[in-house]
From TrEMBL:
Family matches, as Pfam families: IU_nuc_hydro (PF01156)
Transmembrane segments: none
Keywords linked to the UniProt accession: Glycosidase, Hydrolase
Record-annotated Inosine/uridine-preferring nucleoside hydrolase domain positions: 5-301
Example of a GO cellular component annotation carried by this entry: cytosol
Protein name, entry field: Nucleoside hydrolase
Length: 320
């Protein structure tokens, strides 16, 4: 079965790996890619999305830029993790792919509304500003989206703060709007993505592909390894965003549990925390679920296979 997806992202080292997984998986039909400020500025992450479209041989897929900043808060980026360009050690040529002239919010709405109800899944791997704006301007999309699968939050841990994960904490008002909109939402949070460790053995699998894209994956992982060693004392880096994509491709790899989720907006020490209620069974009308576990080996096999499927593009993404 092929799933039609729209990917809203802020590339980003792990967003780049997520896009590789999505574009290299026959189970997904990527309809559009939209960007928002997050891991780096909107200008930088949008350039990365366009350059990656070239590299992956997907230059016909619309790429549209969206929100530069959160709904009400000051912008925050993560250059200390993703580097000055957002892609760490990876240097890509200037994009040949033209930016879609529409705003990301318009692309999200039009993509959903021009397909049958329940046909489009949204995968979100950055701050949720674009989605919050979309449901504010086009509330009719809520009942037409099959599911929102997002990388963000955590049940028991944070990374920007002890309890708040970066994507949620950057724009907690947007996150609350998305979690409480009433559409199905699956939160793939840090408790699960911290299990997606890119070990030297994983890195070797990408290197063994002998392709340009395999080498790009190696360089992305090495960038992340250095950043996580310096910032969070991880020996091997967790690659968060591809786990959300994997949940859509192969749900059996990412176990989930239905549970109510809300976002703290005013706590002195807890702003941006995803508050997950695991007390007993979820109410019948609960529209949210949280990831609880990951098949590490199956997950990385899926990502490596996707990069293998993409082949060995030339520098401007045309298949060799």
């Amino acid at each position: 079965m092929t799933h039609k997806v729209l990917i809203d992202c802020d590339p980003g080292v792990d967003d780049a790996l997520a896009l590789m997984l999505a574009h290299g998986s026959p189970e997904l039909n990527v309809l559009a890619v939209t960007t928002c400020g997050g891991n780096q500025t909107l200008e930088k992450v949008t350039r990365n999305a366009l350059s990656l479209a070239d590299e992956l041989g997907k230059d016909w897929i619309p790429v549209a830029a969206g929100a530069q900043r959160p709904l009400v808060r000051e912008p925050l980026t993560a250059g200390h993790v993703h580097g000055d360009t957002g892609l760490g050690l990876v240097e890509l040529p200037d994009p040949q792919h033209a930016l879609d002239e529409r705003h990301a919010v318009e692309v999200i709405a039009q993509t959903v509304l021009t397909h049958a109800p329940g046909e489009v899944t949204i995968i979100a791997t950055g701050p949720l500003t674009n989605l919050a704006l979309a449901i504010r301007q086009y509330p009719e999309i809520v009942e037409r989206v099959h599911e929102v699968v997002l990388m963000g939050g955590g049940v028991t841990t944070g990374n920007l703060t002890p309890v708040a994960e970066f994507n949620i904490a950057v724009d907690p008002e947007a996150a609350r709007a998305v979690f409480t909109a009433g559409w199905p939402v699956t939160m793939v949070g840090l408790d699960t993505t911290h299990q997606a460790l890119a070990t030297p053995e994983v890195e070797a699998q990408f290197a063994a592909l002998g392709t340009r894209l395999g080498q790009i994956a190696v360089e992305l992982i090495r960038s992340y390894r250095e950043a996580y060693k310096n910032n969070q004392a991880f020996a091997n880096p967790p690659c968060h965003d591809p786990v959300a994509v994997a949940r859509v491709i192969a749900p059996e790899l990412v176990s989930v549990r239905r549970a109510p989720v809300d976002v703290e907006l005013r706590g002195e020490l807890t702003t941006g925390q995803t508050v997950v209620d695991l007390r007993g069974s979820a109410p019948e009308d609960c529209a949210t679920a949280v990831a609880t576990g990951l098949d590490h080996g199956g997950f990385w096999a899926l990502v490596v296979d996707a990069v293998r499927n993409l082949g060995a593009p030339t520098p401007h993404g045309k298949q060799a």
